User: Fold these one by one.
Assistant:
Number 1:
Amino acid sequence: MPDDGIGARIVRKEDKRFLTGKGRYTDDINRTGQAYAVFIRSPHAHAAIKAIDSAAAARSPGVLGIFTNADMESDGIQGGLPAGWMITNKDGSQMKAPIHPILAKGKVRYVGDPVAVVVAETYAQAREAADQVAVDYDVLDAVVDPARTTDSGQPQLHDDAPGNVCFDWEIGERDQVSEALAQAHHVTELKIINNRLIPNAMEPRAALGDYDTGTDEYTIYTTSQNPHVARLVISAFVGLAPEHKIRVIAPDVGGGFGSKIYIYSEEVACAYASRKVGQPVKWTAERSESFLTDAHGRDNVTTAKLAVDADGRILALWETTVANLGGYASLFATVTPTYLHSLLLSGQYVIPKIYSEVKGVYTNTAPVDAYRGAGRPEATYIVERLMEATAREIGMDPAEFRRRNLIREFPYQTPVILQYDAGDFEAHLDAALKAADYAGFADRKAESERQGRLRGVGFSCYIEACGIAPSAAVGSLGSGVGLWESAEIRFNPTGQVVINTGSHSHGQGHETTFAQLVSSYLGVATENVEVVHGDTGRTPFGMGTYGSRSIAVGGAAIVKAAEKIIAKGRKIAAHLLEASEADVEFADGKFTVAGTDRSKSIQEIAFAAYVPHNYPEGVEPGLHENAFYDPLNFTFPSGTQVCEVEIDPDTGTVTIDRFTAVDDFGHIINPMIVEGQVHGGIAQGVGQALYEGCLYDPESGQLVTGSYMDYCMPRADNFPSLVLGFTETPSPSNPLGVKGCGEAGAIAAPAAVMNAITNAIGTEDLQMPATPQKVWSAIAAHRPAAAAE
Amino acid sequence: MRRDAHPGRENPKMTITVSMTVNGKQVSREIEPRTLLVQFLREKLNLTGTHVGCDTSQCGACVVLIDGVSVKSCTALAAQCEGSEVTTIEGLAAADGTLHPMQEAFRKHHGLQCGFCTPGMVISAVDLLRVNPDPSEHDVREWLEGNICRCTGYHNIVKAVLDAAQTMRGTAVAAE
């Protein structure tokens, strides 16, 4: 039995190529005769396009073609990029999701909106020609503030979305919650801004379209988290070509974090242009283009209230949120602030009544889509800021206040649809308090004070619904797709295994983790397992990777396929061992006749299956099985984070002194990889809390934070070493008992950091990112006398 | 030849010949003078391990060694490297494929996820140990401030660099 199966901390199979410069990212791929695309983008946040004059540019050296929306439409490509979830409004009507064309049609709605594409023999020629394309704009007023965009008199983005409203949605019992708030012993109210973020996967987006005139087939290399979904959208919604004439390859992808789920204009335009110019066409984003046009994340403005009784027990929660969707409704833009957000508002607590209303609005900003956590960080931030603030207001220790309200019995039906299937919230709360040395906080705070510094501690107890998701459930909530996953296990005649998965790895380590499943289930060591992903030409249709779903859904599909392999192998083994099938057991990679030492290895069975000279009647040759797995429920990872900060009151600079995270991810396949996911998630959450904030100029709608000079990315020197721990309550909803770990860190960390800072400075009046200026100002406002000294 | 479809459109540009040693091999190419070192490596030599992650010399994905010193190759002209010795991520392992101790430490400590920042991160870390063979955690974090990683939270990168430092000091002592 190989020792590299489930639970083993083995190094990653994929690392050798990444460490030796042999990774193969989209921009590393070149095709013979390849031309280059440069996009003409709107310099205005909001404008009508009066004319596009490309005559001079067309005469520029090396230019092969210049294409606009009119060209695509005249070639029969009438569709656009869809919103993936339909949201039903309070009044029963459907949301307004006007068409999002590949290239702007008549109007531009954000700075960076693509208007035309220039294709030339070299990149430099395309750049030079692009400068000569003259677009005549009629500049319109812009609106970028989600809180103002629905006011009367504001500029209107879409004719068929009056008042710039995409949807106006609610969940929960408004009147009952209202009444509970009115009668409560204490109500805490906070205004909460969930700052807009720019995802910044380190690999800029790229695409290479290659049209084959012999087969009428498009091959599109692209930086995607879900190549099959990309193909489906490009075929069914954009209308480029029938699905079987498109092959999408997402090779090594340098990080996604949600921003590479969405299907983008550029990949479609490169494919289209390739057909038009008769050459492969390549585009790679400059980082400036990434800032302008990658789908952004978050951007919610919320008012939230939490009501408690005299014993510190929660009675009800209310929240009203305005969610900025940007200029168009993107793929997951509408589900993120609704079902992925409001359904998590119960947190880890017994909250008898919850009401949430969310308005999704259009503004002249880049489209917003899922970003690590997608809705769940926003919900966790609301719940956990409220919990901490309430505890302080009623004079209870914040850990104790949480403990008093924890859900302890499972399954637990929340008032907002979800049923939590398993968990032990107190276990990770206790473990985190211990690992963070919460008991020693008072001494450390006193020491900081002696040195003229402020010290604070903050908690964040999160729960998330991930492993998305049961198809029927999401279908009933408006999803346009099912959210199952696929897997194919193929034995070679000589006994190695190929797994073709519909999941996609862009850093998560599937090539290792999925191989570990095969090691445990089929007894084939990971060195003899190859995991193939990211190519619609090689893998079964699959939904891709996001929502921490790869192991819970994609992994479960592999288990299902492995079970079929074992079932077929048992028939072959029974024949070869001259035993009845019922007497053949499978363990450790061997089929054995029960109670004997007669056995056949799975490699021998694979060989027999491909060389079936002595073979059971009625059994097909070959050892190759497929499975599609549709999960029974979401999975519910949960955990407790404790952040301790020290603040220099003279400068407002926040230093994270300690950061502890204890998570319950159910069973863990590779602890090393899981820890890495948590580290990275925490860094992104800390980034949101302290550093990152996308800003648009409120008048012009220009992106102010359009480079790494202006948008503050978390760096190595912003962190201490992180302290992690794990508790384990297996998920009963999938055969592996796993829950998913990719988003947890980012979901929980913003609240932990902000609760620590507000604890240190003694005021709740602080919004993310807590830059030194904001923290200093908050200190000054809270202690005017001290600041004036 | 499809290019013949547009006779006369080639923009005649002055080219220069640049010669340097890259990963131990002498190379010489005709290039436009404006060619950046990173373009030279990726497009002329097909050494695509060196990545471009930004356009403001901030991210560090493109770091290579020029005459042993780490440099952001998006900010150097290839012409400036005439006669230099350049080492990229492809040239770090031994000829027999044995990984450099820094590469090995990144693998052992899971110091990479998507792999995109990794070449620059590894090369920068190699240069740190040249300058400071026994860095503290603080030294490592300060040094790597010019390399952005979005995946790892830097935790395991720092562990890897500290471990590689220890390994390499051990090797250096043993070799004396």
Note: Chain A touches chain B through 65 residues (CB under 8 Å).
Number 2:
Amino acid sequence: MVAAARFDGSSVDRRALVLAVAAVQVAAFLVADALGRPTLYVAFAVVSAACLGALADRGPFGIVAACLGGALLVALVYPLVTLVTVASPESVIAALARPDVRRTLYLSVYAPLLATLLTCFLGVPLALLLRRDFPGRPVVESLVDLPLVVPHSVAGLAVLLAFGEGGAFPTLPVLGAVPGLVLALAFVSAPYAVDGAREGFETVDRDAERAARSLGASRFETFRRVTAPLAVRGVLSGAILSWARAVSEYGAVAVVAYNVSVFYPPAGERVQAMFGSVFVVRELDVNFDAAVAVAVCLLAVCVAVFLAVRTLTRDTGRWA
Amino acid sequence: MLRFDVRAAFRDDATTFDVAADLTVRDGETLCLLGPSGSGKTLLLELLAGFHEHDGSIELDGRPIEDAPPEARGIGFVFQNYALFSHLSVRENVAFGTKYHENARDPDALLARLGVADLAERSPDTLSGGEKQRIALARALCVRPDAFLLDEPLSALDAPTRERLRDDLVDVLADETAVYVTHDRTTARAVADRVAVLRDGRVAQVGPTETVFERPATRFVAEFTGATVVAGSSLPPGLDAPTGLLAVRPDHIRVGVAEGAPAHVERVVREDAAYRVTLAVGDATLVAYSSAEPSTETTVAVPSGRWHVLPDGERDADE
């Protein structure tokens, strides 16, 4: 259906093309799944990527690159799709009926949200500073990115020692408490928020800001009317990545606080809730179906928020 | 009137670049800062706009503004890369400054004056370079600044668009006090009432446009404004050239005249509406406009008074 034209965007409607490729991939996956031969789909996906590479007319390198890229995409997407197909709707519904599962999902969204708000509140102004040169900027940049290379269980331990009992904030409950959970999540997710915001600010044309000043806008007005609107996509992207990273955190949470007392609005009172990633690992030994169901729910929430914000921050709203 | 005597040093890890200029722009006058890339033209303009810290004084219509932030200087800036607000429509771009200026002009009237009224609802990203620069110009005009600073506003445009917009700029700036930065001597000659030639962050010469072009103060100014520089002693006697280091503009050299000095046509290059010929005359090389054939013999003459003896030629930095 697409072989008659090159993928140069001129002769084929891009959106229709993406839909067609996606439909073929879904159909192939379902057939392989029905046959119980997942290897067939993996092979099909890589071969179809090679075909698309050939149709794109980028030469042998294009075909090889499409093959390799296709293999990577399969490695990224196939496990997630498998997870969704393994979980039956009944098991997901049954899992969602459990109060502890619902509390887990709530905490898994709520605590990362608090962590993201904290990292953005503290990190976005820092990102604004980091786009201009100042003595020691490389040091600050390295410090911001340091959590990326610290093993997360080590990060959890460090947070516990620094901010736990006898630490920097003596009155702050850290071990086994929401503040500790949020601090641990903020520690591991802050680099994404700061780097995303910095990239957003760096895309703002310096001359556009100068033009605003020369037109009478104060420094603050220039930030409000020019810098912020132009950088908001980067800031939001960084916040989403930061939030997603926090949702997926396991190591630091397992050390600092994974089972906490949190106010749960549907119940109107404080309840005990376990963080999602820890819940999934613990539940695997107890109730495999429930673990998979919770994993699918977490995945669905993350993907939904990710797609929603990505759609909101896209320039064109097109798929391709 | 814009009067300034400013200095600033710009440092990076390896180098320091100093800019210093003491100039006056009279009311309604367009002063061109003409110079090669890296001569400090744009930096000087940015100093005046308040975008960099600097020493010295700037006075606009009798008001000292050297300590004022950019928004309080009363200076409009037109950027080479347009610097439009891509998240706003064309009309919103032009009207951006009306919030801060009670006597602002009507944005729609300005758009109409510049021939882009039909673009008011468009996004700047959808416009051509010429259209973008007209919007940027309208935006600057809208707030009625006391002076305009224009940083190579035409250099990113194709030739036909550049010429049309240049003509419009001459009209728009006719009664405005403006400093216009360019590296293009043709543009400078077209738009400037006076020209200041910059080199290495310093003013090499300032004066009325024709004076700078016809009576350059240094070899650098002469060559940058398009004149040929030769030593008088290298020319044949028939040219009646004075002694010393001489500058002569191509349009003053007559080729193929009856009583001229012998010359050999070395090269002919078609330039827009004329042929630019390189001539070997005695031991010197001159450039003129002519329809002579390449590799032929001809004659040249320079009317008396068209030779310009460069003052301080021996002490010029190029020597």
Note: Residues 129-142 of chain B form the longest helix (14 residues).
